Amino acid sequence: xxxxxxxxxxxxxxxxxxxxxxxxxxxxxxxxxxxxxxxxxxxxxxxxxxxxxxxxxxxxxxxxxxxxxxxxxxxxxxxxxxxxxxxxxxxxxxxxxxxxxxxxxxxxxxxxxxxxxxxxxxxxxxxxxxxxxxxxxxxxxxxxxxxxxxxxxxxxxxxxxxxxxxxxxxxxxxxxxxxxxxxxxxxxxxxxxxxxxxxxxx
Amino acid sequence: xxxxxxxxxxxxxxxxxxxxxxxxxxxxxxxxxxxxxxxxxxxxxxxxxxxxxxxxxxxxxxxxxxxxxxxxxxxxxxxxxxxxxxxxxxxxxxxxxxxxxxxxxxxxxxxxxxxxxxxxxxxxxxxxxxxxxxxxxxxxxxxxxxxxxxxxxxxxxxxxxxxxxxxxxxxxxxxxxxxxxxxxxxxxxxxxxxxxxxxxxx
Lengths: 202, 202
Fold this sequence. Notes:
Two copies of one chain form a homodimer.
Chain A: H1 2-27, H2 34-41, H3 48-51, H4 55-80, H5 84-101, H6 103-111, H7 122-127, H8 133-142, H9 148-170, H10 179-201
Helix pairs in contact in A: 1-2, 1-4, 1-6, 4-5, 4-6, 5-6, 5-8, 5-9, 5-10, 8-9, 9-10
């Protein structure tokens, strides 16, 4: 009996995650309401709260899938390129491509906030490592003398810079780049940075 | 009579802007409600709509003041430093300092969105130029052969990168830098980029 109930609960969770994912991808995190998701998942409003603690927990599960998909896309680039410059260029391009192709799901990673006073659970925090983990190895190759904490800080800085270039432009901010310039500017930016790192190493 | 009515309207506008500014600076754009602002400004709810078209127009006026203050802070740094490297470092540090000291007002510049289908008025769009205008001159010194459209694209890219580093960390995003590392990482980032530009010029 318990096994059957567990299976039913897992099925419900899956349907709710799929519905929330579709909703975020089409309309963004802003317009997300519990009743729309349960309607799409074909269950009662209250059922959401038997499967998840609240709407935030459901959103974290959607973000978790997005991070895993983004992580897979980045891992593929990190393993296909060999030289640090080629690797960092490939990672930046893959990040831009993923953000472009999954606009709203990608934006939800950075827009979602927990209710005041509620911490993001550890299991989800740890998943954000995919955003920087592939940057550490090429940065280490460019800065052989740097220690791990420094390399991690450099990786966070580089990720934030690339994210800023992509986000300011994709969000159509006044100060962003034209869509046609974005990829070439981003790759040029990575090139200048790598040249700077190579020069400093000498 | 008209002069007196105009003066009264200007006074009302000023009080509403001051009240909205104080509200955004203490609680951010998220919790901004017309009735809180009019209560603080000591006028009826309807008075807001005699002074401004809507709440969005009032927010644009607050953002306009924030941009002017940020512009003044950046201008001061741009004129005090001479060498491109020193100038870009000073501008990055001034941007971080302004963002830190005016957290919510600064965030409102990037969080505010007009209602769907409503364009940001031209007078306000033009004010965003302060974010990149001081970057063009030092970039031109580092890239003497570059033409104006390229320099403007480089300035937008550099602004977006610096903004990304500052924003991801100040917003306490999982992937951001520790507050103690932020300034040194940001300045190190600018240094590497300038070294890259200098090397490419040779």
